[in-house]
Specification:
This protein is mainly α. It is built from 4 helices and no strands.
Length: 167
């Protein structure tokens, strides 16, 4: 690779930096969630406790020439620190992804609630319109009363005609 010409101001200087490999953020996010989910279980705590107890037992009870991490357990401390330094960001990443999912679910719930509210308001208006329309429609009882009143009037009119004819 040749050195870029520095006397040309119209050409950008190619930075000499390390190019990191590309990765799929979604796959990495799923992986981090799986780790965070596994670390948040009682099973993980039990396994870690057993591993640390075995580490302590081996490095205190085994013959001196077989011990690989003597009493201050510096190597164990290093490993646990390394685990914690990776666990915290992975857990935060998993929480951020969960927060994003929760936000999307909440937005969908709001959208559905708004649609249901609009549907309910529409149905309320329709029911009100039907009630108003029914208020103007003659009911069965109203028709019976009117027909009964008309029949009574006809009977009275027939009686008056009969009286006049007899007089």
């Amino acid at each position: 690779m040749s050195e870029p010409r520095r006397d040309r101001l119209d050409q950008p200087i190619e930075p000499g930096r390390v190019r990191l490999p590309k990765f799929d953020p979604e796959a990495f996010g799923r992986w981090s969630e799986a780790i965070a989910r596994a670390m948040g279980t009682a099973k993980f705590i039990v396994y870690m406790t057993v591993l640390i107890a075995a580490w302590f037992a081996w490095n205190t009870l085994a013959p001196v020439n077989l011990r690989f991490d003597p009493y201050t357990f510096t190597f164990l401390t290093l490993i646990l620190s390394l685990q914690a330094s990776y666990a915290a960001p992975l857990i935060l990443l998993a929480q951020n992804r969960q927060a994003d999912r929760d936000r999307l679910a909440m937005e969908e719930d709001r959208r559905r609630a708004a649609m249901q509210k609009a549907d309910t308001e529409f149905l309320t208006r329709e029911i009100a319109a039907l009630r108003i329309a029914l208020g103007e429609v003659a009911t069965r009882d109203f028709l019976r009363n009117e027909l009964g009143r008309l029949a009574d009037e006809l009977d009275e009119a027939a009686l008056r005609r009969e009286k006049r004819r007899l007089e």
